[in-house]
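Form 12-C: Joint structure prediction
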Amino acid sequence: MAYLEVRGVAKSFGKKKLLDGLSLEVEQGECVVVFGPSGCGKTVLLRIIAGVLEPDRGEVWIGGKSVMNVGPEARGVAMAFQNFALYPHMDAFENIASPLRARSRPEEEIKQRVHEIAGLLRIDHVLDHLPKQLSNGQKQRTSLARSLVHGPSVLMLDDPLRNVDAKIRYEMRLELPRVFRKFHSTVLYVTQDYKEALALGDRIGVLMDGHFEQVDTPAAIYGSPRNRRVASLFGDPPINLFPIRPERGGDGAVHAQIGGQRVALGPRAAELAGRDCVLGVRPEDVAFGFDQAEGGIPVELAAVTPFNVRTVTLLKAPDATEILASRPEDNSLAAARGHRKGWARIDLDRALFFDAASGARL
Amino acid sequence: MASLTLDHVTKIFDQKGRPPTLAVKDFSIRVEDGEIIGLVGSSGCGKTSTLRMIAGFESITEGTIRIGERTINKLKASERNVAMAFEGYALYPPLRVSDNIAFSLLRNKVPKARADAKVKMVAELLEITDLLGLYPPTLSGGQQQRVSLARALIRSADVFLLDEPMSQLEPHLRAKLRARIKDYLIQNKMTSVFVTHDQTEAMALADRIAVMDEGVLQQFGSPVDLKERPSNLFVAGFIGEPPMNLLKAQVTAEGRARRLVVQNEQGSQAFSFGVPDRAEAAPLKSGRRLYVGIRPHKIVVAPSGNGAVERVTGTVVSSQWLGDQSYLGVEIGDAFLILVADRSIRAAHDSQITLGLPYGALHFFDSDSGEAVLHGSDLLGA
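Section 2 - Result
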């Protein structure tokens, strides 16, 4: 039995059915990311688990017991929000210590636990600073330390990195897993940033239309999405989707028209001949080059847009099909302007096939 | 289309009952004919005031703005021949989307058939074909922004001014529309200036970018210039995502040899390496306090061969795979470094890892002034 279980939870607001009988299991020490577009019910789910909102139907179990008759303060659930508020008149040490003081822990234990977590979050040198003397990153760390210091059985974080600047967001994203490990925290982490979901989740629950469309490891969500909707939510630029109708040629091989070019689809498409499909190709699986490539599609390089540590190109095939391709940062490609002719080669070993009608992955 | 020149432009807001505020200070850039320029900086840096002065929505306190050879300081907004898409620059609610877009063309007596063809083309570009018959109040924020962009891009004007043109765009459209708009601006040789708080957007779209902070131009250069030769700490920290790793450091002397001692946040030594004994390394004077910087994707995992690479060993804090790239957090003597690789990296947490810091990718800034004193690429020169 999982440590935290959400069993068939439903919640409507007026006529709007926000959660439609969804279930989720989180093992002890696991971090599960609840990912979905804004307004999909992520925060409502957290509130139901915390006990501040009653579900219409369904139950929440923690540690093998139903907590439906347990008040929010007795569930052992800690919740941290986008805006971490610190007590302005207390120094960082006292802010972090406050949940332990509220539980009347002995002084020795308080000292030891505050210093331990402060060291882990690299704020041990500013523990005597008041919040106004802390940098934004230190404030963020201090409030995180406060929510973790008393060792909650379940930690729920509601988009905590949404409003912080880029430097802190990236640092915290990389440091949080270590903190979770150290405290053996069972974590539910809500975000609408797919990168954060891939980075932090042991598993990711993709919440859409009131239910989990897929709950899986990051590798499975990205590499084997259940359907094209899930595939489209992960990746930036998003996955290219080409409507195709694979046909079996005279040589027995299955091929399809992509961008007006006949492209052999390889053995994975053997069963798909005659069926309307959508081919999903991630931009990093399209190689653009100026030299003719075997199995390549003739294209025009229409635009080069540097994108953080990568370079994204917009390619146009003769039939006006657009293909987004991405490659590691390439300053030489970005230096020139205007259209250039070249070739796009799709890595079909990594391509995904979806049913055109249902969107399910084939 | 024309060039655009801002010559020593200053803007002071002087409102009754309030102390005057300096929004833009002695700002000079020249935008070439057909060039795409991004103005970036944090909120309050003066980028929007600059754009509004070009548009004619704000008076110019000092200096001159010229479009081509024409000084426009005293001209009304409507006389400047600029096209604009401003954030919150409202669409006409009683007009259908198609009429909103075509409005300026029809007012300028462009034949209906030609106007319709242009509307159709720009609607396809911005994925609003299905919205042409609707009225603006029924549209989402992202859709309204695309209509507003269409209305500006369809015009013919000397200069195009775009204020946060893509801030509301739906994430799944962003990459494609950025590329299409860039292509469109280039194909039509449109001189364009856009304002954004998002450096990622500026890097994607612009030929050159003006980075502003507190009303002052920090650097004006191509995306490659800003990445490879940031002029100061502000630019180094503002441009790039993840941002550049920046660590405090001090140069020490051991006899004739100099070493760079890199510190962690707490101020103690994290690691150190030798300063090359070359004339170009002169700014790294003994005793000088610096910040040393390296962009996350320039750090090499398990460096091979010799070359001009400094090797450091650290502990993996975490390793995260994001589909098309991997992020690694590594602690070296309590200093935290972020690195990005374009492949999946197997690195268990708490394991030891050897990283290469190529000299050519290091940047050095004076810790007092923040000015760049040396870019590592200068050390590699012949």
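Section 3 - Comments
The radius of gyration of chain B is 25 Å. Chain B touches chain A through 47 residues (CB under 8 Å).
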